[in-house]
Amino acid sequence: MKIDRRTFVGGGVAAIISAPRLARAQAAKTVRIGVITDMSGIYRDVSGPTTVACAQLAVDEFTAANPDIKVELLVADHQNKADIGLGIIRKWFDQDGVDVIENVGNSSIALGAKYLIEDKNKVALVTTAGSSDLTGKSCSANLVHWSWDSWCLAHSTATSTVRTGGTKWFFITADYAFGHAAEADATKFVKAAGGTVVGSVRYPYGSTTDYSSFLLQAQSSGANVIGFANAGSELISCLIDMDLLVASCFRLSEMALACNTSRRRVAGVNIWRSKLKFLERKIFSRRFLVMTIASVRLLKSRS
After folding, report:
1. The pLDDT of residue 43
2. What is the pTM of this model?
3. 146: how many CB neighbours lie within 10 A of its CB?
4. Less Cβ crowding at N or C end of the chain, within 10 Å?
5. How many angstroms separate the first and last alpha carbons of the chain?
6. Could you tell me if 64 and 121 lie in one domain?
């Protein structure tokens, strides 16, 4: 089936793009996608260049199948600062003719962008901002939240953890939108499964490097599970500090960890297209690796 530009931009979001703007854009036959992500901060390794590589792969596959439609990819670093991120998005919409923003990678920015997207009647494809508010109280007809959020991670992992003995929880939480949502969602499922939350602490997001004091609070709380509601390099730092204080830990999810002081166990949630055959997965993985390496090299050459 031949896909035209109108179908591509409007199909997934049910005619949320106005007809006059579509007519002008159809004539130009160019779709502009703005990938706004963390290219230099704490989420660089779980988003950043990897996100750009994924977007480029999607563009390559789409344009190969639809050569009549031109797709432009713009990339920007929001630096995990809401004012910078929203300023970039506003400029893209007002001056650069961007039709769709993709990734976002920071829940505070994604939630703040909701009003810009609706006002300009644009589209957001959010793939790594994880707050469940994006499809809850802050949902929008102009926004697609793709693949995962704090609700699905908490539902699958917190429930199973309590059922296997991790009944007393202490949360160490990044003090911003995703951290708050992750802790709230996990707390709900911990209690629903019969567990309790014995304490929590929130730390300044983006500026904390030493987590030992928070881990000591958790250790002295009587909890047998420490839930980390954070991600990226902050999560790595938590694990390094935790290694000095506790004997074992088990994985709660890609974006949150739980630590158990009495036994070593690993569990996780992963998002993957299981219908792909082995050879297809192998080919895709190699293409993705090559594209990611290219993105990282380009980033380094600009720094």
Report:
1. 86
2. 0.73
3. 13
4. N
5. 43
6. yes
